[in-house]
Amino acid sequence: MWLTILLSVSVASWLWYKGHREKGLSILACYTLLMAVWCLGHLLGFNGNASLAALILLLNPLMPTTFLHFILQWLAPLFTESQDHQKHISRWMRWLYGSAIILVTLTWLSGGGHFQAWLDFPLFFHLDFPGWVNLIYAIAVGAAAHVVLFIAFMISTGNLRRSIIAMFITGIWGFILSVSFIFPSMNMQLFPYAMLALPSYPILVVYSVVRYRLIEVNAWVSKGVLWAAILTISMLAMSVLLALLAPLGLADLAGVPSAQLILYSGILLFIAGVLYGPAKEFADRLIYPDGMLDNNTLDAWVNAFSRANSWGELEHTAYTLWQQQTRTPCHILIDTDSLQNAPSSQNHFNCQKQNGTWLCRCTSWEETSPGIQRMAETFAQLLASACQSLDRALLLAEAERKRLQQKHLIELGGLTAAIAHELRNPLNIIAMAATQTEQQTRQHIQTQIQRAELLIKDVLSYSGSLELNLQRTDLSALFKSVCLQCEKLFNKKINLEASDGLWITVDAHRIQQVLVNLLDNAAAFTSDSGCVKAVLQKHPDSIRIGIHNNGPRIPDNMLPQLFHPFVSKRAGGSGLGLAIVRRIVNEHQGKVWHSGTEPDWPVTFFVELPLKPTLHRETR
């Protein structure tokens, strides 16, 4: 009982302190305080103070009422956060508290119970009829609280739902513990062993509520479970020891009462806790005399690792730090798949990246002392962490370098576009001057001017800003129209296969540019007797365009750079056609690729446009 009182008061004080941070914790503190008062009533009854003890025990209805108040306050945001709802809760709770106080007063005045001997207890509280009414009322209020919990469970999710489940389990545990206190009133001659576990109830009630709300409490509970386990093991060990002493004539020691056994175990546990740190340090110095590390050394290692800006520098830093600390030869291997290049007689720190995580393993350390091996394990952990940090820093630096390079390319593209635009003026002057020359010369000049105009047009198209004017378009009609125009323009027969009625949201002008570039490219590489085939098909989530030609295959060394700018084997070409195609298709969130495996077609370019793009651009 005293332990339950101590734990309940401690928990209530902590809840009261935290009450300003979490809603309803101050009410839960009152609940745990009432539990401490109820246990105090039993202690007063055991010591003969029957009148005051009976009054305190008959305060029982206030506990479930306070618990119901906490439940309603705790779960209020789940139902509603309106001020009217809060006022209704306050009004109902005032009525319930008043009813509980009136019931307590009436049952006390009418003799709710009495104390008499029971089993090994000189005095134990027995309920009379008014006391049973008092108890039934308390049970009803507690049941109402759990009904609210069940309703909340049905509509809650996540951590709140888990807390509610924990509250239900704790409620079942509390019911099992409390039933043992009414054994005397039910004339049951069973010893109430369950009351020995009563100290766990206030802890479990609070923990089930705050486990997911106050994270720091989990660390405390973890330590508490650890020490409780140690205390339990100590008690069991002492019990076994005392039982073994009895046959040896030490019956007095074997007959130590349970209370003293718990006290001695607790004292032993306290002494062990106080001596744990110094004893651990002594044991480490004894077992690892040459492997001791202090916090200053560890901090120095971490700071030195953090200053490394490259893998070579990190290797040199690691080697230097290890030599300064131990003078033991070693070999640092970072991101090396094998140890073939390292001397087999040396100790190795082998750092490798596996599944995105850096690991550092110590190999060939069997001939060193235990202290050096232990220090090597610590050093390896810090080195792996340093590899992780450096890898992340280098990736960020590379990303920044690419960003700056992209920015430079954008600026260069703008400059190129400006130059290309300005070149048109002198070309126009040259074209006008060429009209005064001979026919053959004029024809040659005009051919070269047209070539230059085509190059300028492609440069402007590739380097300029690309804004899409997205419209609902009949792609079938657009596809057929462009193929017929290109057939006349390039003087090349185009076999056309296109499904009808394929509508899609695209920039029709830009898609026409894609088709013209691909068909121009196919016609340029096809002989007079060659063939070009254009196919338009609908797939479940996209529309696919295929441009086939039976010209020569594209060399393998060109495939990786095929869609890069200025990559062309075509005489007179700008080298920007496929690069422009890729840029336009990418802006439509589509895909373009080359295939050399289609039957009867050495060269095929596919374009796939999504029917429902994931990102919708504004129509401009």
UniProtKB/TrEMBL annotation:
Keyword tags: Kinase, Membrane, Phosphoprotein, Transferase, Transmembrane, Transmembrane helix
Record EC number: 2.7.13.3
Domain of life: Bacteria
InterPro entries linked to this entry: HATPase_C_sf (IPR036890), HATPase_dom (IPR003594), His_kinase_dom (IPR005467), HisK_dim/P_dom (IPR003661), HisK_dim/P_sf (IPR036097), Sig_transdc_His_kin-like_C (IPR004358)
UniProt keyword Phosphoprotein present: yes
Enzyme class (EC, first level): transferase
Gene Ontology MF annotations: phosphorelay sensor kinase activity
All copies of domain Histidine kinase, residue ranges: 418-613
Reactions listed under catalytic activity: ATP + protein L-histidine = ADP + protein N-phospho-L-histidine
SUPFAM superfamilies: ATPase domain of HSP90 chaperone/DNA topoisomerase II/histidine kinase (SSF55874), Homodimeric domain of signal transducing histidine kinase (SSF47384)
SMART domains xref list: HATPase_c, HisKA
TM spans (from-to): 25-46, 52-75, 95-115, 135-155, 164-184, 190-212, 224-249, 261-279
Name by which UniProt lists this protein: histidine kinase
Provenance organism: Oleiphilus messinensis
Organism ancestry: Bacteria, Pseudomonadati, Pseudomonadota, Gammaproteobacteria, Oceanospirillales
